[in-house]
Write a structure and sequence with these properties.
This protein is an alpha+beta fold. The chain has three domains: 7-50, no CATH class; 54-155, Tetrahydropterin Synthase, Chain A, CATH 3.30.479; 204-278, no CATH class. The protein is built from seven helices and eight strands. It has a three-stranded antiparallel beta sheet, with helices on one face. A three-stranded antiparallel beta sheet has the order 6-7-8. Strand 6 (54-63) and strand 7 (69-80) form a beta hairpin. Helix 2 (95-110) packs across helix 4 (123-138). The longest helix has 70 residues, at 157-226. It is rod-shaped, with a radius of gyration of 52 Å. Residues 8-167 form the Band domain.
Length: 283
Amino acid sequence: MSGSTDCCCIVCINTSEVGIIEFLGEFQSYAQPGMNFFCCPFAYLADVVSLRIQQLDVQCETKTMDNVFVNVVVSVQYQVQKDKVGEAYYSLSRPESQIRAYVFDTVRSVIPTMELDQAYESNEEVASAVKQALKETMDDFGYVIIQALITDLTPDQKVKDAMNQINASRRLKDANAEKAEADKIQMVKSAEADAESKYLSGVGVAKQRKALVDGLRDSIMEFSGDVDGATPKDVIDLLLLTQYFDMLKDVGQHPLTNTVFLPQDSGSGAVRDGMLQAQSMRR
């Protein structure tokens, strides 16, 4: 057009981004994703604001109620609100610093009210407090807080070593208790098995002796009936003599038997046997 000093400029904005168009330093409009036209050089693209979700990891040191220093890492996920791009761009020059400051303030006000073990168990409570504090503040600046997570909570190395030692001692104590209980059960079972074995052995011996007595009674009755004039005492004496000879036979066949002394009624025989026994012991 003749006499015109205006030029048409073209700018392309990526998806999930919004451009800030200014005219002579004053906000004019937003450049949406795609191809945008504006008059230059008076109008220009000042900046591009991302609408993507961003994450900021904040590390801070604080002290628990039981005087243990811990390092806490909080991961904050935030995003620029699409309808508040202007507030997000013009209100805060460094939103990361603002978020980091509120995380520091919240963590250092919540963790000191807890002991170390409680702090480990209350990660969600701390994260919820951080998210709530940021949400109330950053919403006015055009930012929405999507999530806040406690990704790490680490005490001093000396405290970690002490905790590991305590846990190891507790596990060793539990293991010893379990072993003692197992030994106790084994001893009880062994005693029960031994008692049952002795009971069964006693029953067997009783049955054996009963059979012997029954056999002896039958033998006495048969012998007394077959031999005229034989009394039960004669039969018993005969059986005892037979068992006596069987005993001498078994003793003589033992590999460790060297000398067998047979008792006699005479006094001289007893003296002689005593001397022979003494000589045998000296060998």
